[in-house]
Amino acid sequence: MKKTILLTLVTLIGMNAWAQKFAYVDTEYILNKIPSYKAAQEQLDKLSAQYQKEIEEKYAEVDKMYKDYQTEKVLLTEEMKQKREDDIIAAERKVKELQMKYFGREGMLFKKREELVKPIQDQVFNAIKEIAVEGGYAVIFDAAASPNMIYTNPRYDKSDEVLQRLGFK
């Protein structure tokens, strides 16, 4: 499948592409060979499990509140029912907020990942870039996920020409 996509890409680029040098790397293989990356991943997995356990405990508390409410519902006044329902909704909202705080787009786990893993990934990227520049490669593909370009020589970047043709500077 990857070979088919790569061959299609090369065909689409046209005859000028044959004059360019291409290469690929497997970043997953590279990262798994770096001990500090493995240690960071283990630390993140432990932190994630800890956060997940806390969230599950909080949801269990909300579930208990709801079950208790369902059991006692027939004995409560309308005012008491409303207060209990509001309390359950507020407790559930707090758990969801905590979940976002831990696992959200800008959550604590994301920030910890940025702190631990990003510097290692940056080092790998810089090494790939150095190899590309020294070897004269126009594009280096990442075979780990799909043939995505992770480095392109700016000399072959035609983005500014496209913008100029569209009338933008």
Automatic annotation (TrEMBL):
Keyword annotations of the record: Coiled coil, Signal
One Gene Ontology molecular-function label: unfolded protein binding
Source organism, top-level taxon: Bacteria
Coiled-coil features, chain-numbered ranges: 37-101
A Gene Ontology term for the protein's cellular component: cytosol
GO biological process, one term: protein stabilization
Signal peptide residues on this chain, from the entry's feature table: 1-19
Similarity annotation: Belongs to the Skp family.
PANTHER family, per database record: CHAPERONE PROTEIN SKP (PTHR35089)
Protein name as catalogued: OmpH family outer membrane protein
Organism: Tenuifilum thalassicum
